[in-house]
Amino acid sequence: MYSLVYSRARRSRAITRRYTCALTVVTGLVAALLTGLAGSASAAPIGTVGDSDFEGQTSRTLSAPWAGEGPDYKGIDIGLGYQKTGRNNAFIRTSTRNWNAVTQKVPVKSQTVYHLDGWVRTSGNFTTGYLGARGTNGATMVQKNYGKVVSNGAYQLLHMAFNSGANTFVTLYAGYIAPGIDSWVQIDDITLSDTPYANWAGYEVVSSPVNAAPHAVTAVWTEPLFGCRERHPDNQLGIWVGLDGVANSATESLVQIGVVASCQGQVGDLYPEYQAFWEVINAGVDTNAQPVPIEAQPGDRMSASVVRSAADPANFTLTLDNLSRSGQHQSLSKRVPSARSESAEVIVERGYSSPFDVTWPAIVNVAFSYVTVDGAPLSSYDVLPAQARQADLGTVYGPTPATTDSGDYSNFSVTSRPG
């Protein structure tokens, strides 16, 4: 339904696509309206990574806008199944102790804070990998170390922020120094953005050099009262938990369940409607938001979970309970073969529509409790906060710092504050 884009075009689906979709409730059913942006710019915005997902590469040899550093074997895997998303990824494979990297020179705005994201997967026998950015003088501006494997077979997200300073170009790089024996790294989805905002607000636990790939997420919340502003009849707000939502590409996957509130009726006679939903995106194929036959009203205590099967990783169990109403329970089994479960999300989301006329409520306060990822509190992980911003008012929506409850669960709130 939603999904965030971390570089911060980030992602959204459910209610949905983080950026190019919206979900509207019609006659009690949920239907996601996928709408594209009107037209496209003739040139990429300053700070945009060209061919960020390597899908434009047509041979095993790196080609523009990408380049290579170091003397050893590197190139493109095309349709081999090693990618994070899409069909292609870059790779480096060597046994020598040389520095080798995949690089791209990207124009940037000076004195601007940028957010750099990239996904890597490694052979696990080295700890000397780095993703980062250099200035025009060749000096390292920011970098993060990788190499340690905490989840076999999982891509790891490296996320960092830096100020471009006086630079008008930066060189992005992802590479490593081999340990003297056969080793490799696969690289995909490198993005750069000058905004920290998307249309999600909450927390994400993402597979990384310190986080294992998550397989289960749970949360409880009280459904808030949703107001319909007369000038925005398409208003909507979704609350959900999910797995695999961080990817943002045409072949992304996502598994989620929750509740969406939407304004119904005509301008001058609008009323809020609440609908429980589930949604699955499998390699870019979207079920759109589908109704779950559970009543949900303001003040109801809702509990949701998504769990990936250990015995069959393509199988997911989605559960939703209305703890305030007897007998309101649903458990669904869905097959999502392409989902890697490389992230877990607890999110409040506003849907996008075209033109971008769906706005957040002026005030948001959603308290989550009993939040766990793989049965552990958020304090067990290096969490990634997701923030949104109200375009017309400048209000920022985001999570408060997570706190643990009895050591087993986390509690946090998504609130609105001045931008």
UniProtKB/TrEMBL annotation:
SUPFAM superfamilies: Concanavalin A-like lectins/glucanases. Residues 1-43 form the signal peptide. Transmembrane segments: none annotated. Residues 401-419 have a biased composition (Polar residues). InterPro entries: ConA-like_dom_sf (IPR013320), Peptidase_G1_sf (IPR038656). Residues 395-419 are annotated as: Disordered. It comes from the Bacteria. The keyword Amino-acid biosynthesis does not apply. Keywords: Signal. This is Uncharacterized protein.
